[in-house]
Amino acid sequence: MTWRINPFDDFPFHQTAAPIDVPAQSDRHYNDGYWFCFYRPGSYAFCGLRLHPNSNVMDGYAGMVHRGEQRTVRFSRALRPRANDLSAGPLRVEVLAPLERQRLVLGPGEIGIEWDVEITARALWPETRHLQDRHGVVLNDVLRYTGVTRATGWVTIDGERVQVDDWYGARDHSWGIRASMGPRAPLGGVVAEPADPRAIRIWIPFECGAQRGFFHLHEDAQGHVLDFEGSLVEGDGATVPLVHARHAFRYEAGTRRLAGGAFTLTDASGREREYTFDVVCEPVHPQGFGYTRGWSDGMGPGVWRGAEVVESSRFDVTDPAVASGGEHLRPEQRLGGTEFAATLRGPGQTTGMAMVEHMIYGTYEPYGFTGPNRWR
Questions:
Q1: Which residue among 129, 159, 222, 224 is least packed, with the fewest CB closer than 10 Å?
Q2: Residue 5: inside a domain, yes or no?
Q3: What's the pLDDT tens digit per position in 124-173?
Q4: From CA 102, how far away is CA 169, in angstroms rounded?
Q5: Which CATH number belongs to the domain containing residue 230 in this structure?
Q6: Is 2 among the domain residues?
Q7: Distance from C-alpha of 298 to C-alpha of 330, rounded to nearest angstrom
Q8: How is 218-254 classified by DSSP, letter by letter?
Q9: Number of structural domains, the chain?
């Protein structure tokens, strides 16, 4: 085996008899990385950076939805020998204080957007390990923590400088095996297995007044809850575990694009807290990140593309009846938006904002949606 000592090898945190940038297992779908967003009404910035050590790839994306258009730059490079350098293409991530503060720098490029912002955590939550297999093969084995954040700094859009003055935001850090990342590996079997029952995904980190909260859930096509977890952090620092959520969403007429709605959170004592929200920016389309075969080569993240590759896309996101996407995607391949910035109203007339991730995978009867699976 040929390997090089990494500067991080000076820390005593190894988990296997190998340099720290070599995983303990060789699955090509193993990856580790970040997602960040920061937003205000009318503008939503996003970026991600991810290591795929068994493909020798670091890749990611950055961009913004602003004035009805999504602009995204995607980038990929050789991970080694710069495995400890958290930068690729025009994006650089600096960990200023672990779990507390990060600096995100997006340099100039063809999408006309630059930024330099500092991200400060307001609360972090570990999510339950997600383990899924099919025909005896592990498809997904992922651990994640999620947080609500604030962002300060500046963004430049086509030469116009905008102050990022304590914008709301969210982040996550996940690692493990993800079937959607890395080279495609068709998987079959001779024994029929039950179809994945998930029909809707809801994932919401939020701030409302002095309260910070997070919950996520999946339901089946009839609206039965398949899994749920969440908790609140009150202004005095007390943590309140949640046990259930109900939702009543509104959609743009004749479409599946989220417009607003309400959710009710129930804690372990049975107390209910009610929130209403309104979407205040056109949604972010993750296929622009390169997800779900969103790269121009028709593949997804974690694929070796060369020593240094940068590409970009720009597309209109104003029409709720159209699943938008890059020009390299055929209309029937485009999957639409799933990430929504929303203003929020909570108990006691408190206000704030939420990042609402919302996916409907096909038929979901409670809201009258029928049709083919779009996101899996």
A1: 159
A2: no
A3: 999 999 999 999 989 999 999 999 999 999 999 999 999 999 999 999 99
A4: 12
A5: 2.40.370.10
A6: no
A7: 11
A8: EE-TT--EEEEEEEEE-TTS-EEEEEEEEEEEEESTT
A9: 1
Would you state the structure tokens that stand for residue 293, as one six-digit string? Answer: 């075969």
CA distances 361 to 76, 121, 163, 237, 253, Å, are 29, 31, 37, 36, 19
Token code pair at residue 236: 């005095």
Beta strands in the chain (DSSP E): 30-40, 43-52, 57-66, 69-78, 87-88, 91-97, 101-106, 113-126, 130-134, 137-157, 160-178, 200-208, 211-219, 225-233, 239-251, 258-267, 272-279, 308-316, 339-345, 351-360
Contacting residues for 18 by C-beta, under 8 A, at least 6 apart: 1, 3, 24
Single-letter amino acid code for the residue at 75: F
The whole domain housing 88 covers: 15-184+195-367
**Contact (CB, 8 A) for 281 and 353:** no
Indicate the pTM of the whole model. 0.95
Q: In one letter, which amino acid is 98?
A: P
Residue 66's nearest CA partner among 148, 146, 209, 164 is 164
Give the residue-averaged pLDDT of 229-255.
Answer: 97
Q: Omega into 81 within 30° of 0, i.e. cis?
A: yes
Q: Does residue 288 belong to any structural domain of this protein?
A: yes
CA distance 289 to 70: 11
Closest CA to 119 of 35, 205, 237, 43: 35
Select from 85, 34, 76, 86 the least CA-distant residue to 55.
76
